[in-house]
Amino acid sequence: MSLHLDARQRAMLQEMGVTVWGPSPAQEAIAQPPASAPSAPAAVAAPAVAPPRAQPHVPSPAPAERPPAPPAHTTSRSAPPAAPATTGPAAPALRLHPAQALYPAADPAQTPAVLGRGWLIVAESMTPAEPLGGDAGRLLDNMLRAMQLHRHPRVFLAALERSAPGTEASADIPATLADAVAQLQPAMVLVLGHVAARAALGRTEPLGRLRAGPHELAGCPAVVTYDPAFLLRSQDNKAAAWADLCRALAMVRSAEAEG
């Protein structure tokens, strides 16, 4: 803070014993700015900007006229009819070959009585003329040998074959199989695979449900299980197939014991 004291005020303070430190009156006069300081230079005026020229008004094009609506009595072209929904793949056209004995050289005297009068097997085969050939045929042979059916001369196979182009499918497979059952009089009909179950029993349920339920073909008990071709692709199901075969054997043994 600076005190602007004149000479008389300084003299009075000195008489009172107060020492004043600060610039002398001559120095304060030099330090003070003149009373009228020149004003700051005026700001340079910005150049005037000419206003934008107004664009000539161009009228917007008139909207295109819509075509007149058709009269009320006219009808638009109808959409093509939708294709009918399919419920699943169609059943393949099959040809049923006559039943043939798989082990005709077996000795009837050595046939265990628990195997019953005979067995009829219905299965789709890639080689009907040689049903036990190929990988699927060898697996079928192993399945039957595990049941000791290779010792039975009356084990028959009714092979189903997919119809080749230009060949006729069998007309009524269930009726033909019913005639074979009446002629062969088997103790059990073993149906292998979903294709065989559909052809022989006329059933379209999933194979798991068909395996669980009891079936009959022309009055003869029937058991449904997996076919050898499927077991080659899904070997985890072999244990379930073996359980089905054991159930069929137990049914035959029970019927033989009661008879």
Task: Describe this structure as you would to a colleague.
By secondary structure, the chain is an alpha/beta fold. The longest helix is centred in the C-terminal third of the chain and has 21 residues, at 238-258. Residues 36-47 and 83-88 have low confidence and may be disordered. Strands 1, 2, 3, 4, 5, 6 and 7 form a seven-stranded mixed sheet that branches. The protein has eight helices and seven strands.
Give a short overview.
The chain is of the alpha/beta class and 259 residues long.
Shape: rod-shaped
Distance between the termini: 136 Å
Q: Helix content range of the residues, please?
A: 25-40%
Encode the helix/strand succession as letters.
HHEEEHEHEHHEEHH
Major β-sheet, in short? 7 strands, mixed
User: What structural class do the secondary elements suggest?
Assistant: alpha/beta
How much strand content do the residues show?
5-15%
Count of β-strands? 7
> Rg to the nearest angstrom?
55 Å
What's the quaternary structure here? single chain
Low-confidence stretches: 36-47, 83-88
